[in-house]
């Protein structure tokens, strides 16, 4: 039985973790299947939704595999996860994760590699590695502090603190909260809108923005100017600006409601 299913819909690929009996714990087969997709997604795919079957997004690393590894094998395993999650975060496709239930350990590391996270009220976040004599190995020590700060991550690891959906939203682990059972639909709605953006703008957001954020102010401003000029000079941008000036494109309006409901 496959542990990852892939569906395509109007330029959006929907990747669904399929190990519900194990709360979608991540084994090597699943992680490598995710990598295989992102290596060759298909030219028609412009955005991705990362979803999970059952009541939980992912309870993290499948510990049944970990107990059989030597130190050297564990190192190689961590490097493999880094490679796969780097492909998600640093690739050319915007990724929206639909979160629910357990988002724990490696599951949180996977979610942190996505660009947008939508959470249901059942979502809860934890990093139990400290209580299990472990340390994060899927890039969490780099990505999660960028979202919530090293001090909050330390609290979760040292004390076993569990954050609920509202606490996770306030801390920065998700950008959107939705009703119970609504994360997939909301994530798909967002992904379809992202897929409709100018491809060069999406490229700039995924590739230039993180580098600008980590650059010196002078270097960041220069890169911003260069990327802005490249994007504005594209045929796609010029056509979209003409449509706006001619009244053929919608204007931005107020947000529709709370919890990250979007402006248009």
Automatic annotation (TrEMBL):
<dbReference type="InterPro" id="IPR014748">
    <property type="entry name" value="Enoyl-CoA_hydra_C"/>
</dbReference>
<dbReference type="Pfam" id="PF00378">
    <property type="entry name" value="ECH_1"/>
</dbReference>
<dbReference type="InterPro" id="IPR001753">
    <property type="entry name" value="Enoyl-CoA_hydra/iso"/>
</dbReference>
<comment type="similarity">
    <text>Belongs to the enoyl-CoA hydratase/isomerase family.</text>
</comment>
<keyword id="KW-0456">Lyase</keyword>
<protein>
    <submittedName>
        <fullName>Crotonase/enoyl-CoA hydratase family protein</fullName>
    </submittedName>
</protein>
<dbReference type="InterPro" id="IPR029045">
    <property type="entry name" value="ClpP/crotonase-like_dom_sf"/>
</dbReference>
């Amino acid at each position: 039985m496959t542990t990852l299913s892939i569906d395509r819909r109007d330029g959006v690929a929907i990747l669904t973790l399929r190990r519900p009996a194990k709360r979608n714990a991540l084994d090597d087969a699943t992680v490598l299947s995710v990598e295989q997709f992102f290596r060759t997604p298909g030219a028609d795919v412009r955005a991705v939704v990362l979803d999970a079957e059952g009541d939980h997004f992912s309870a993290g690393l499948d510990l049944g595999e970990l107990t059989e590894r030597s130190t050297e094998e564990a190192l190689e395993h961590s490097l493999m996860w880094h490679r796969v999650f780097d492909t998600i975060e640093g690739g050319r496709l915007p990724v929206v994760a639909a979160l629910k239930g357990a988002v724990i350990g490696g599951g949180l590391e996977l979610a942190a590699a996505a660009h947008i996270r939508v959470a249901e009220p059942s979502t809860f976040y934890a990093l139990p590695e400290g209580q299990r004599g472990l340390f994060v190995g899927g890039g969490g020590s780099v990505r999660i502090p960028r979202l919530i700060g090293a001090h909050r991550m330390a609290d979760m690891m040292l004390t076993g603190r569990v954050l609920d959906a509202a606490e996770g939203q306030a801390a920065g682990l998700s950008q959107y909260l939705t009703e119970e059972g609504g994360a997939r639909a909301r994530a798909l709605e967002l992904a379809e809108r992202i897929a409709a953006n100018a491809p060069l703008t999406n490229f700039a957001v995924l590739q230039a923005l993180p580098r600008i954020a980590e650059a010196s102010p002078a270097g960041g401003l220069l890169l911003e100017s260069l990327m802005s000029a490249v994007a504005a000079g594209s045929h796609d941008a010029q056509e979209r600006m003409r449509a706006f000036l001619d009244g053929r494109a919608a204007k931005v309006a107020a947000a529709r409601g709370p919890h990250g409901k979007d402006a248009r």
